[in-house]
Amino acid sequence: MGEALAALRRERGLSQAEAGQRIGMTSQGWGLYEAGRRPGLFRPDVQRRLTGALDATPEALALHTPGAPPASSEPLAVKDVSARGRAFAAAPRLTRRLRLETDELAPWAAAGTVLEYVVGRWPRRGQGCVIQLDDGAFRVRLYDHADDVEVVVGGAGGLDRSERIPRAQVRSVSAITARLDEE
Where does the HTH cro/C1-type domain lie (predicted)? Predict the structure, then answer.
């Protein structure tokens, strides 16, 4: 891949110093990527940064890589993929509803309130969330924060009380997107 980067740079008529200067890098730093002695050349973000300095794309870099398929003037036949510009249409999110059985989140939401949540959408701080535990139980809380050890939420027996749920017990966390007083 380093050879492909060097080939792209030479095609553009740039020295290592000129290419590096475009992204705030020294010629030595650029040379390490071309020599394959600097890790990260296979990372997409690094490829975008380096090829951007050459007014190229990571796809152009891949086509210059030894063993890459030859460029063709005919478009590839691709089925069942649609795109809008460079962004692909995301898969539809699954929306579900859940009726609160208790008043422990009052005044945010009282018993009988129907909550609509999006499975797989992570909540922001202070947003309601539905947490499904490994045992199949659901907890409705106000999201605070999470790390790799635990999920911290509020609303357990009062809005100002926090609860720490071990991450190992959490199957999913989903953001609440609507509160419906009547269904």
Answer: 5-61
Same domain as 151, residue 102:
yes
CA distance 87 to 103: 42
Helix or strand or coil: residue 10?
helix
Tens of pLDDT, residues 81-107? 554 555 445 556 688 898 988 877 777
Strand partners, 134: none
Give CA separation, 35 vs 5, 52, 55, in Å: 9, 19, 21
Looking at the structure, tell me whether residues 46 and 114 fall in a common domain: no
pTM of the model: 0.49
**Calpha distance 139→101 (Å, rounded):** 11
User: Which has more confidence, 91 or 12?
Assistant: 12
> For tokens 């809005």, what's the residue?
159
pLDDT of residue 26: 92
Report the amino acid identity of residue 19: A
What are the two backbone dihedrals, phi and then psi, of residue 155, each rounded to the nearest 5 degrees? 100, 5
Q: Which two tokens stand for residue 132?
A: 């499904």
The CATH number of the domain holding residue 58 is 1.10.260.40
**How far apart, in Å, do the first and last CA atoms of the chain sit?**
58
Residues 104, 105, 106, CA angle at the centre, nearest 5°? Answer: 95
